[in-house]
Design goal:
Layout (H helix, E strand, L loop, with lengths): L1 E2 L2 H5 L4 E4 L22 H15 L6 E2 L9 E3 L4 H4 L6 E4 L5 E6 L3 E7 L4 E7 L1 H6 L1 H9 L5 E4 L9 E3 H11 L5 E5 L3 E4 L1 H11 L7 E3 L14 H4 L6 E6 L4
Parallel strand pairs: 3-6, 4-5, 9-13
Antiparallel strand pairs: 1-2, 2-14, 5-8, 6-14, 7-8, 7-9, 10-12, 11-12
Helix pairs in contact: 6-7
This protein binds zinc ion (ZN).
Zinc ion binds next to loops.
């Protein structure tokens, strides 16, 4: 039920991207391993506990925010119930055992770790977040060097159709025209959003080989992933988490 990135494991960070369901049942709202905040608290708590056991974290120290496709980043400090009421799209965890988490269902989850500080960030990067700069905003607060990053399961270039205008907005935001993988029909384009995130991370100084793409298209991967584009309001949410450790 959890996918991981080898580079974050090697750097000593507990982390994971929630994925497939027991029995291969198609993900849907309310099904097991659905981290949508609107679920009934009991089911949500049992999914947090299961993910915590699989990844190695204390669900009581899991920090999330109210995601709005913006750039604000919050620290994983204080009462998690207060932090989750704050609008934002990234969480930075600095103290040993604090957990940063973001929910996705097509948007790109990005986990970034600083091996020397032991700090880590979880970032919710949809195309609006990419254009607005949520990745640079989160890394500014993380303030680490020698960072390693993992890009999690999300909508692939195979399925991410947008208008040409949106495609060009994304390409110019990350200064990489090649993120537009196809142009066709009535002003449509297919965009590689994970490549856009990678370009942004490289622009912030990360080495290409410090960035791992876990892979997996949320839309195509019906038996593994939640997808808002595929299932609309019936879609559940996946959770990407990373745990800060002692430096
Ligand atoms: Zn796809």
């Amino acid at each position: 039920m959890v996918e991981r990135a080898a580079n974050l494991t090697k750097a000593g960070f507990f982390h994971g991207f929630s994925a497939s369901l027991p029995g291969g049942e198609a993900p849907r709202r309310g099904a097991s391993a659905d981290f949508a905040l609107g679920r009934d608290p009991g089911s949500l708590a049992s999914d947090y506990a299961a993910l915590g056991a699989a990844v190695g974290f204390d669900a009581a120290r899991l920090y999330q925010v109210k995601q709005v496709h913006g750039t604000k980043t919050h620290l994983a400090e204080g009462d998690p119930r207060e932090v989750v009421a704050c609008e934002g799209d990234a969480v930075v965890a600095r103290s040993d055992g604090a957990v940063a988490g973001v929910r996705v269902a097509d948007c790109v989850p990005v986990l970034v770790a600083c091996p020397s500080l032991g700090a880590a960030a979880a970032i919710h990067a949809g195309w609006r977040g990419v254009v607005r700069g949520v990745v640079p905003a989160a890394l500014e607060l993380l303030a680490g060097r020698g960072l390693v990053a993992a890009i999690g399961p999300s909508i692939g270039a195979c399925c991410f159709e947008v208008s040409i205008e949106v495609g060009e907005e994304i390409a110019s935001a990350v200064d990489d025209e090649a993120v537009i993988v196809a142009r066709y029909g009535e002003g449509k384009a297919k965009v590689d959003l994970r490549r856009a995130v990678r370009a942004q991370l490289r622009g912030l100084g990360l080495a290409d080989d410090a960035i791992e793409d876990v892979g997996g298209c949320s839309v195509c991967g019906r038996d593994r992933y939640h997808s808002y584009r595929r299932d609309g309001d019936e879609s559940g949410r996946m959770l990407a988490v990373i745990v800060a450790r002692g430096g």
